[in-house]
Amino acid sequence: MSRSERDLVAALRAELAGIDPARACDRAAEAAGLGARAVARDGPAARLAVRLRRTTTDDPAIGGFDWDRAADHCRSAWLRGRFLAHGSLSLAGGRTHLEFVVGADEAPVLAAHLRDLDLPASWRIRRGRGVVTWKSAESVGTFLRRIGAGGALLELEARQVSRALRGELNRVINAESANLQRAVSAAGRQLDAIAVLEQDGRLATQSMTVRTVAAARRETPEATLSELAERAGLHRSAVQRSLERIETLALHEDEGVGRRTEARPGRRTARRVALA
């Protein structure tokens, strides 16, 4: 992670550790979630553990935590303590990754508790320890909001939105750049083909539509197919077919030689005269 990302994670942990639960049951639940490991984890969590021990006398702080009987706010407090004692958050490379490293026996239990809150997480055993993981930024944000994250979470979400917007903007710019490059390349080929056909006289033997499109392309080399169609008073498909024909004729020197695509009406007229 970059320094700014590490600072944001540190600020988030400090914000969570600074929450002072008003209910005695919430203080007991958070103390149970912290356990003994918080003292050695980091400064904010250690200070929180000391503060909670001074104000907590309920059994859950000393023994276990009864998830099934606990109220929703007590569950949130317990999870906050669990995250501060056993959780880590990574924002490296624009990816959000939150995990709990707990005892091997606790991992499936913790995953089940999170599933109860509609926050399903994956879990596995890694080097003898249980690891419960989220890799979804949405799930991580929902969890952090549930356990009380505020300002730091807003900053995290703002960064995620900004990163997503930058990614979308870059995608659009790259797509537009690629389209422009293709259009410029195609226009260059078409202008070269028109010059070849004009030089050997074959352009004059083509239909009025082809000649009109060729003239429009020469006059506006940068125009798109739609702009050419509007300029020539034709359908876009007719413009595309005409340009494809121009390129095909230029690639084959004998293509169209001795033929005129407008000759069909003349042949029908000659036939009527002969029959008369």
Instruction: State the share of residues found in helices, binned by percent.
Output: 55-70%
* Secondary structure: number of strands: 4
Q: Say which CATH homologous superfamily of the largest domain is assigned.
A: Homing endonucleases
First CA to last CA: what distance? 91 Å
Average pLDDT score:
83
Derived structural class: alpha+beta
Estimate the global geometry from the Cα principal axes. rod-shaped
Number of helices: 13
SSE order, one letter for each helix or strand: HHHHHHEEHEEHHHHHH
CATH topology of the largest domain: Endonuclease I-creI
Largest sheet: 4 strands, antiparallel
How many domains? 2
Word description of this protein:
The protein has 276 residues and is an alpha+beta fold. The chain has 13 helices and 4 strands. Strands 1-2-4-3 form a 4-stranded antiparallel β-sheet. The termini are far apart. The model is unreliable at 59-63 and 258-276 (pLDDT under 50).
